Structure formats: structure tokens, C-alpha cells
């Protein structure tokens, strides 16, 4: 398979970073297509433990070209910090390319993100405060600044003059906040442009050329499909399209060029931030999952809400994205559970439905219908072949396949690269 999209099959934090890191061994190119530094991948490899927000996980493989696509929103300060951390560990950044058309997170975007969240009060979305929503809003309103604009003094000044003036009206008149200095923002971003110039390029042409040459390409999603702006639990979503379709618009790739879609799902579910979560577990079980799975946000450090595997949302994600296979991560987190559950349907009023609702009210009122299975209660950390898993763990995964309608190709039993069971090769 030469072009494979790796997407989050839940609400983000599924462990995509590790799976992409593994698959890059056979890839020539890895490309991020949406989101920004709201994402956080933790990658554990022989060089150390890295918390990455913008740079694709493929950077650790010296043969891989990494692309930050046009669909990503880039905070240049964050990107430069990550690059410097990687350089300190001897990782070359010559292979890192950022799309000229990617939009730029400006200092007032995180500020407005926070002020808007505060203004929503108890209806706040629980955003990461990284300015993601406000940056995508400006992109859609056609007033944003793109990476290419950082390379031209006149263009940058003219784009910023309009934007800073309009944001300052909002900051001062609506929020009673101090204004931003156009001069400071201009000089700072011009400098970011100077530093990033060697990396800013036409990544769409680069990618399409690689497709023509039959190179192995990994498209790396951030967040998860249930946070998709159109198909997620709106309005408790992020402002981009984390699914396979987002890979096309976020990179400039023709839909037919994507030959496979791998959805990464945990053996249970987590969600950070507010919003519907039908399979959220009772406090005690959720706390066990949180501790065992170290379920605290990479970006914000917030404790993640934890619950059981949801086959209803997995089927939905599979259908929306043409998912070919699942990677099930963190199976080991369930190792000590006496009973494990899989949600196979939602009870809504007196009926059982097997699809996800659109209305927020319905999302909030469904209750899960569970199948309970006996847990395996033994460690899976050292297992490297499906047949060597405890029988109950095999049964759990087989049931996940049956009720989700997708085969499980990869199983992760720990954070390290080697703590993985590969059943089917995907790239
Ligand atoms: P935003 O993307 O910062 O606007 O936040 C919108 C919602 O998406 C919030 O519920 C966040 O917690 C969630 N979110 C954003 N990025 C991630 C991620 O990488 N993992 C999990 N949740 C995320």
C-alpha cells in the first residue's frame, strides 16, 4: 500500500503517534494534514521520550521526509521550540517542510480562544486554549495570515494591519482587554518567517510528485473523527477535519490517491474537554483506567475522561472514512479488569439504536447497551503474537472486530515500539 491515512477513531489521544512512528520504518514521507499544537503526541523511542505538537512523528526516522500540510494551523513559536528540542537530540530537520498555504496562529488567537471560553461560562467547550478555533475562523473569513505571507514584509504588514486592528476592536470593546501591538506582532512574525524560511515550500507539489513516483506515504491525522467539525459531537468538536477527507483538503491530494485508511482506537475510550461521551465509566473504573493508562492531556495536562470501547462510534467512523483496519492501542490498560465491556448500541427512549445521533440533545440522552466479557487478568505487555494473548483478550479483540465490522491489524500493549502485535502489514 503506498498512501495510507492514519486517523484517530475516537476523540483523540488514541496513540496515533506511536503507530505512525512504527509505520514510518517503511515510509518515505509522513504528512500532517489538520489541527495545530492542540494535538500532542508522545513518542517513546531509543532517542528518548518526546512530546510533540506540530512536527510529524516521522521525523525520528532519518530516511523520512516530513510535511506540515496546508490544512494545519501553525504556531511558529511552538514549531521553532519543537525544532530546537529535536536538534538538541541530534535529529536533523532538513527533511521538515511546511506548506506555504498553512495558516499561522497569531498571538491574539490563543488569547481570544481563552476569552471566548470564559465568556461561554458553564457552556465552555474545554478547548486547549491554543487559538485553534480562532485561527480557523480567520481562515474561513478570508482574513488569515499564511506561512508564505511571513516571507514578504509588505504582504505581512498589510495582512496584519487589517487583522490586528479588527482584533483590537474585539479585544478592547467586547472583552475589555489590552490591545495587541501591531508593531510588535509584525516584527516578531517577520523574524519567525526568517527562521522558518528554509522549511516553507509548496508541499502539495512535493506530495503529488511523491505519489506519482509510487513512494510510501503516511498521512498523519491529529485529534479524532468524533471531534470532526462536521461529523463530530458538534459543538464539542475541534475546528478542523481529522478524517480521511481532511487529508485530501489538508494536503492537496486527490481522494483516489489514498489507498488505505487505518483508524487508531484505544481498547477503551477517553475524551478530554466537555461534550457527549456515552460510554464514560463510573468514577472508580474511570480512575483505574486513568492511572493505568496515564490519561492526562499531553497539551494541557488535564485528566482525561475514561470509559468503555464504543463499537457504535467505531462503526460510524469506519463508514465515514472507509476504514480498512483498526489499530487497537493500550490493550494492557485493561489487563487487571475482572470484567471488560463493549458498547454495541445506544438506548434512546425505549428503542435501541445502532447509529450515532446528530442532535446534541440526543447524544446527551443515549445510554450505552453493553456486552460484558470476562477480563483476562494477566499481563499482555510481553506478548508479541495474537495467538499468545490470553484467550479472553483474543475473544475481546475478536468481538471488537465483529461489532465494529473492521479487522484489527495492529495491537499495542505498551508505549515502546517493540510492545506491539502486528497481524497484517499495511504499508
Ligand atoms: P480545540 O481544538 O483546542 O479548539 O479544542 C476543542 C476540543 O477538542 C476540546 O474538547 C479539546 O479538548 C479537544 N482536543 C483538541 N485537541 C485534542 C487532542 O489532540 N486530543 C484530544 N482532544 C483534543
Question: Which terms would index this structure?
Answer:
12 helices, binds inosinic acid, 10-stranded mixed β-sheet, alpha/beta, 5-stranded mixed β-sheet, 19 strands, globular, 427 residues, single chain
Walk me through this protein's architecture.
The chain is α/β, with parallel strands linked by helices. It contains twelve helices and 19 strands. The strands form four sheets. A ten-stranded mixed sheet has the order 9-7-5-2-10-1-11-14-18-19, sandwiched between helices. Strands 12, 13, 15, 16 and 17 form a five-stranded mixed sheet that branches. The longest helix is centred in the middle third of the chain and has 22 residues. The structure holds inosinic acid (IMP). Inosinic acid binds next to helix 4.
Short characterization:
The chain has helices spanning 16-23, 76-88, 108-120, 132-140, 153-174, 182-196, 203-212, 244-249, 283-292, 311-321, 360-365, 391-404; strands at residues 3-8, 29-32, 41-45, 48-52, 65-68, 73-74, 96-99, 103-104, 200-201, 217-220, 260-266, 268-271, 305-310, 325-329, 339-348, 351-353, 367-374, 407-412, 420-422.
Structural topology:
Blueprint: E1 3-8, H1 16-23, E2 29-32, E3 41-45, E4 48-52, E5 65-68, E6 73-74, H2 76-88, E7 96-99, E8 103-104, H3 108-120, H4 132-140, H5 153-174, H6 182-196, E9 200-201, H7 203-212, E10 217-220, H8 244-249, E11 260-266, E12 268-271, H9 283-292, E13 305-310, H10 311-321, E14 325-329, E15 339-348, E16 351-353, H11 360-365, E17 367-374, H12 391-404, E18 407-412, E19 420-422
Parallel strand pairs: 1-10, 1-11, 2-5, 2-10, 5-7, 6-8, 7-9, 11-14, 13-15, 14-18
Antiparallel strand pairs: 3-4, 12-13, 15-16, 15-17, 18-19
Bound molecules: inosinic acid.
Inosinic acid binds near residues 11, 40, 130 and 132.
